[in-house]
Every structure is written in structure tokens, then in C-alpha cells.
Amino acid sequence: EEQVLIIREKLAELYESEQQWSKAAQMLSGIDLDSGIRMLDDTYKLSKCVQITRLYLEDDDAVNAEAFINKASFLVSNSPHEVLNLQYKVCYARILDLKRKFLEAALRYYDISQIEKRQIGDEEINEEALEQALSAAVTCTILAAAGPQRSRVLATLYKDERCSKLKIYPILQKVNLERILRKPEIDAFAEELKAHQKAFLPDNFTVLDRAMIEHNLLSASKLYTNISFEELGALLGIPPQKAEKIAARMIYEDRMKGSIDQVEAVIHFEDDTEELQQWDQQIAGLCQAFNDILDDLTSKGI
Amino acid sequence: DNSILRQVSSLLRRLPAMESEKFQDDFL
Amino acid sequence: MDIERKQSELIDHFVKQAAGEDASASNLAALILEATAHPSLFAFSEILSVPNLAKLKGTQYSSSLDVLRLFSYGTWSDYKRNVGCLPTLLPDQIRKLKQLTVLTLAETEKVLPYDQLMEELDVSNVRELEDFLINECMYAGIARGKLDQLRRCFEVQFAAGRDLRPEQLDNMIHTLSSWLGTSDSLLHLIQEKIKWADTMSEANKIHKKEIMDKVEEVKKSL
Asked: Residue A96 contacts by C-beta under 8 Å, 6 or more apart in sequence?
């Protein structure tokens, strides 16, 4: 087994040098990490699992990568090696990203971006890598299914002043402010995305399309009491039928309040705050404005 | 002070705080 | 208030420039053009009240003073009615004047019909009107509200204040005093209600005690 292991590692090295990532991963996968004959220490096993995962991820192969990251999950909790632990975290986030579990991926990327140390073992953590993780967190949050959870993560990212330096900040700002994104902005955002984030879903939407349409629908629900699907399609830049389909699903999944009148082809957005509560809010806003004026008067000595 | 006047003008415009039929029913 | 805070520095900047000793008529005309085209400035009466602007009268730039007055108090329709004696507006100025027009319409009504808006803003279709209200009014922070396509109207919840003409002050004072009167009588009414509720609850307590005493008596007699 010892000799086999050495040959496999050598071959994997050669495949890696030729950038044949999956072949290198397969070569290493052949090493029997759980063999009863030789005792391999956990750190070695963990390093191999993480290495194989990273190789599969180079080819965006989430399925095989996940198999090995799951093996690594049993080893990482006792691992004292911070470098390996960090690599494990990055692999895990990337697998979630590839599997389009965008909100979970965003939270892990964000966690990675908040690492304080700039030196872990013999690895230097540079600002650029952290910025990349932060940017990936923003991208995944924007691509996540619209709803209350996503809004919370958006608010967290928007408050993080490091985000204001990211190229993606303008779109984060608009998304957080629940503003409708127009086609030019969406196209500019699309240029920053990875292939799997623009892949087609079964319903013939791309991941980006669905995220953008859902976001714009929610944004429209803040602006409209009701809107015809004809006009909604024009606003979102999609056929009215598609707009209706996504709206119906969001209402069904309780991610948007409203009702659809198919006869009139109109969607009625519901403001889930009770009329009386809205009254309270309006009065509160009015009193706030009143106080602002009094403060202004005071500050001007009037 | 023009700024104060504009703010008061904007404030007054917020009255009445609510006026939808639905609100009238709920309020009653 | 936010909009006032945002534009107060701009106002100070333009007022200071307009009040500068060296401000010639052409500089003042250029300043008015810059101010009326600036995307974040929606108030002009401070600039209009700078004495230096009198220099524009009787010069080839006198129409700039009319433009400033138009942006302080007028609407897009006013511009169209006087287009012959006003300079051609830049696209940024046109957009601004239309934004100011929405603020003027919102001064008197909280529900603005689409037909009225489309006529006042020279807009030919609903999509274009709604895009204007969304991008240039709600997202610009000068108005907040809901678009109702079925009733074809814009329900305004908040609109920034425009410059006030002197003749509007009486109306404002009247509205404020009647609001004060209403609030006072409302507070008074609430006080009365509270007193009534207290009295009633006292009476109920006494009544309840009497009943309890009777129950006790009956129990004893049994």
C-alpha cells in the first residue's frame, strides 16, 4: 500500500501540473484512507480529503467534491491545523455555491471574509483573498431566493463598510434598498458571475434570471398596490406569463404577500400590515417629521 | 426660513394620516 | 427632512456663489443653469432671494431670472405656456421641472390620477409615467407612495416640500391652526374618555362589591 500511495501521489502531481484536475483527484481518491493495514493519522486523511475536494472543485464537480468534503467533515472538528481548517471552510462554501444553496454559501463566505489573522501557519492571508470571499458572499446573497432571510443577510452585508469598496457595491445597495434593477445593471452584474451562477434551471430560466425576477417582483410589490401582468412583464423585461408564474410561486411559498386575479390578469400586492397599523406608522412618521422640524427650529435658534 | 417652510408644507401634506375606505371600516 | 438635509449644503454653496461680489450677470446665469439642472437640488427660493440677482434685470440674461422663478414655484405646464419667452431647457432641467411638478400636484391631493399626471408631465403611456414616478420621484427620495394600476392613480404617502409663494403662507397658517385645534380637542376628548372609563370602572367596582356583599348575606342567611 505504501508504494501504491507514493505512485498515486506522484501521478496526481503530474496530472495537476497538466491541469487535469479531475484525473488527479481520481488518482488520489484511489488511496485507501480507511485501510486497516496501515494506520494513517487524521491530519493526513484530512489533508488528502481537502486536496481531492479542491481538485474536483477546479472542475466545478460539486458531486464528487461533496463526497470528500463530507469525509473531511468527520475529521476537521478535531484538527489543530488552521490552514487545513480554512481550506476546508472555503471548499465547503464553494460546494454550497455550486449546488446553488446560495444563502448558506453566502453565510460561509462571509464568515471566511471576517478572518482576523493575516498569517495562518505558513500561509499568508492577503486582503485580496478576503475581499474575494466578501464579494462572493454578496453575489450569493443577491442570487439567493428573495425573502425575509435574504433581506437580513443583505442588511448585514450592506452595513459592513468593507462592502462599499467592492465593485459589486452599487447593485448590493439597490438590492438592499429593494429597488428595481434595470437590464443594464443586471447585465453588468452577470459579467461578474461564474458559469454555474448563469446556468439554466429546469424551468428554462437561468439562476440569475430567477434571482433578478424574484427580486424585482418583490421590489415592485413595495411600489404597487396592484399591477397588470402586461405591465409587470414590461417592467421586468420578461413575458407576462413568466411574470405570473414566478409571482404565483412566490405567493404560494409565502415569500410575497398578494393575490392573482387571472380573469383581469392583475396581481394585487398585499401590504401585510393592518390598516390600523399603517395608520399608526403614518402617525409615527408624521410625528417624527414634526420633531425634525422642531429640532431644526431649535438648531436655528428660531 | 425657507427650509423650515418647505418641511412644514411637506408635513401638512401628510394629513390626514390615512384615508382609504378600508381604513374607515377598520377604524369604525 | 432627508431631502432638506441633503440639499442644504447645495443651497449654501449656490447662495454663496450668487452673493459673491465678483458675480457678473453671465456668471449668475451660468449658476442658475447649474443649480436648476443639479440632480439633488429641489429648492430655489434661497437663491432667488439673493440681492445680487437683480443684476440680471435688463440684461441679455434676464430670462435666467424667470427660469429660477419658474423652478421655485412653477410647473412644466407653466413652462410650456411661456416657452416663447424662456430659454430652451436642458434635459436635466426638464426632468427636474417635471419632478417639481409632481411635488406641486401632491401639495393639494394625496391621490394623483394617472391621466392628470400624464397630461401635466407630457407623458404618453402608463409605463413611461410609472418609470418616471419610480426612478425620478420615489427612488430619488422626493416622494413615497403606491402605484395603483387598477384605479390608475398614484397614492402619495410623502412628498418633499416645494418653495412656498408668500400667498401660500396664510393657507398654511390656517391649516396649522385647525390641526392644532383638532389635536387639542382630540386630546381633550381622550382625556374625557379616560375620565369616563375611570368613573365607569369605579362604579363597576362598587356595583360588584355590592353584589358580592349580597351574595355573602344570602349565604349567611342560608
From this structure: A102, A104, A105, A108
User: C8: which chain B residues are within 8 Å (Cβ-Cβ)?
Assistant: 3
User: What is the band of A65 on the pLDDT scale with cuts at 50, 70, 90?
Assistant: very high
Torsion of CA A279, A281, A286, A291, to 10 degrees: 140
The pLDDT score that the predictor gives to residue A36 is 74
3-state helix/strand/coil string of chain A? CHHHHHHHHHHHHHHHHCCCHHHHHHHHHCCCCCCCCCCCCHHHHHHHHHHHHHHHHHCCCHHHHHHHHHHHHHHHCCCCCHHHHHHHHHHHHHHHHHCCCHHHHHHHHHHHHCCCCCEECCEECCHHHHHHHHHHHHHHHHHCCCCHHHHHHHHHHHHCHHHHHCCCHHHHHHHHCCCCCCHHHHHHHHHCCCHHHHCECCCCCEHHHHHHHHHHHHHHHHHEEEEEHHHHHHHHCCCHHHHHHHHHHHHHCCCCCEEEECCCCEEEECCCCCHHHHHHHHHHHHHHHHHHHHHHHHHCCC
Q: Are B9 and C161 in contact (CB under 8 A)?
A: yes
Task: List chain B residues with CB under 8 Å of A282.
Answer: 14, 17-18
Tens digit of each residue's pLDDT (9 = 90 or more) over B1-28: 899 999 999 998 888 777 777 777 877 7
ipTM for the predicted complex comes to: 0.82
**Contact (CB<8Å) A227/C147:** yes
8 Å CB contact of B12 and C156: no
B to C CB pairs, distance under 8 Å? 55
Write down the pTM of the prediction: 0.82
Beta carbons within 8 Å of A131's beta carbon, 6+ residues apart: A113, A162, A165, A166
